[in-house]
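[Meeting: bench + compute handoff]

Bench side (C.D.) handed over the final construct sequence. Compute side (W.E.) agreed to return the predicted structure before the next meeting so the bench team could plan truncations. Sequence as handed over:
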Amino acid sequence: MSKRFPSQPDEMLRRWGTGVVPVDTPERAQRRHAQVVDALSRSIRASAERRLGLSRARWALGFGLAASVALGVGVAAHLRQSAAETNDASATVAELQGAVVVTEAGQSRVLSQGSSLALHTLGEIETAPDALADIHSQKSLVHLSPATKLTVPRATTLEERYRLALGRVDVSVDKDSKLTRSVVVETPNAEVVVHGTVFAVGVSPRAQHTVTEVSVTRGSVWVLANGVQVALLGPGQHWSSDGQPPAAVPAPPLGERGGPLQADLTPSADASVRASHRPQTVAEAKASTLAEQGRLFQEAIDARNRGDDTRAAELFTHLVARYPNYEEAEVQLFRAQKRLGQTAAAAAGARRYLAEHPQGFAHEEARSLALSSTPTQ
């Protein structure tokens, strides 16, 4: 039988069983109690700190997410506002070279190098003798040459209109645009109406009057003088108002009995009245008629631009009745009637226009309007 050593487990258990268990003194027990309490306290604090850290992390994460959402909403709102402002803009003026002065709502500013400005109301643009500028709209691009003065009214669903007082503009109209409105360049002598083309219009001063010149690069344009179509130009063709009869000076205002006002009967005015009794030549009569047409047409256009469509419709009706085949007046009349909600009258006017001007500059617009309503009894 092998010898067993005291180090084996059963010997150790025997010795422990017969041994005496020492009793802790009160001081030692108190120290052990303090150590246990201290360890438990540290464990509780560490657990609490871990929970607080997790809570703070979750709060920070939530705050960050909320801030991101708020920032995203703010950016989206800003983008929507910017987009709305861009859509609300009638046109945008961009400075290309030199001093370009833009006046809008009575406030004038000079565009800095390479800057641009969105127009929301009627704007006036003037380039210095060494300056260049571009005007971008939803359908056209207008390039202003040096020493040019151009007025840009707010665009409508029917037309984009530019009023050239002096200088030269090169206009490019997007022929692929889905917008059906016309692009019109108005000068002191004429109106150039297009839908999709490239052309240039210039206004230059002469001794006693201004001259409008139109040249076409691509497409075709209608040229109207005093509301009457005087030319249809194609690529490479040119038109000048120098061949048109000059506009006569409007007659003095009439009194209640049809004669001149007493305040105007000075010796020079009385002499002019006596001179008016001499027979007029054909050219003088034609010039006087065109001057009267132009005066009434401008009065009607001014009423339209003020938003007084009722007055505009009255004046255009008078023009059409007094001067038959006055194409521009007929178009402006059914447009005013349409804006007033007089759909049946506008459609009837559009049908009359198509009958008289089957290839007129507004035939597509008139055809669409004529088909939109059935004639009333």
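W.E. noted at the follow-up: DSSP finds eight helices and 16 strands in the chain. C.D. will use this when planning the next construct.
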